[in-house]
Amino acid sequence: MPEPALSGLRLNLRIVSVVSYNFASYLTIGLPLAVLPGYVHDVMGFSAFWAGLAISLQYFATLLSRPHAGRYADLFGPKSIVVLGLCGCFLSGLSYLLADLASGWPLVSLALLCLGRLILGIGQSLAGTGSTLWGVGVVGASHIGRVISWNGIVTYGAMALGAPLGVLCYRLSGLSGLAIVIMAVALLAIVLALPRPKVTASKGKPLPFRAVLGRVWLYGMALALATTGFGVIATFITLFYDAKGWSGAAFALTLFSAAFVGARLLFPDSINRHGGLNVAMLCFVVEMVGLLLTGFAAAPWMAKIGVLLAGAGFSLVFPALGVVAVKAVPQQNQGAALATYTVFMDMSLGVTGPLAGLVMAWAGVPVIYIAAAGLVAVALLLAWRLKKRPPQEAVSSSPY
């Protein structure tokens, strides 16, 4: 049963005990991330296009399946969806193992790798959405902001740990060894999840997808606009440093990640205390200042401070807006709302790279950070408009 009275260390431990399943799912994503492109291109002999496609298939599968993951979590309960998602992560590892065994038939091997990436994308959307809703069910809806924050922390932690660990496994035992490690991680998570009590799915007639979208799309648009800042830093900070003739781009990325995780750890109760939209607006201001400092940086220290501020500002945007978006729908639709809201971040990350690349080719690298700051400013205005909107409108708005 939910225990809203939980607080402090006990509350955090309860949350981590559930979102750890999302850690496992993201670990299965991080482990092959630095290995597969080189394996497809250098070992199998396919072009860079196919190497990139093998990685991108997972993101497309996640994007397309995420709304369904939320709806199924509402219908069948989040625990069942988490276990199903972890099974997908296990099957992705099995596909990599079969691809290595079929290395004598390159087309078959590539097809098995691509199949594994598709299954992984679906598995992650199920495990990620389900673990958040499971955590909310365990500790109570009043702590939803903290659950979302911890989910983000374990996500980044798993990705940071998984990539170097995957490279080490590949060097020691090849793709087969890496695949077995992925399968073992997923299987262990499944074994630990199965004995845990279920959180009962909410009763009540669910809203149609269009109605859910109508209630959360403005929050999703604000998230998408703010996500462009993260996208241009993660994708182009190395080119930015090269264009300036500086070294230390990798350290700048470390600063961004440290600020992101640090802000979530330092301000766990800020959303409950000050409200999601208030926190989001403050975050937009900090992120915008960071992006402008980066874009106008005349020295490496200015860029590093800018990246640090951008990471700290972006950190709480997702949980702050997510709390408000989820509360805009009835309880039986919270999974669908969270998944639909998250799709806007997925779409933003998918679109930011190519568009920023075009802008960069036309006007230079620093301009993309200034342009991203302008988009975050639009997100700030949108959040301010949402805050001024009458409460009854926020609850009742839908395309009907």
UniProtKB/TrEMBL annotation:
Q: Which Pfam families match?
A: MFS_1
Taxonomically, which superkingdom?
Bacteria
- SUPFAM superfamilies annotated for this entry? MFS general substrate transporter
Coarse class of the protein's main subcellular location: membrane
Question: What are the Major facilitator superfamily (MFS) profile domain coordinates in residue numbering?
Answer: 181-400
Topologically, how does it sit relative to the membrane?
Multi-pass membrane protein
Compartments annotated for it: namely: Cell inner membrane; Cell membrane
Stored Gene3D superfamilies: MFS general substrate transporter like domains
The parts of the chain that form a coiled coil are none
Q: What residue intervals traverse the membrane?
A: 21-40, 46-64, 76-99, 148-168, 174-195, 216-240, 246-267, 279-299, 305-326, 338-361, 367-384
Give UniProt keywords alphabetically. Answer: Cell inner membrane, Cell membrane, Membrane, Transmembrane, Transmembrane helix, Transport
* Record-stated family: Belongs to the major facilitator superfamily. YhhS family.
This chain belongs to the protein called Uncharacterized MFS-type transporter AB7Z85_13405
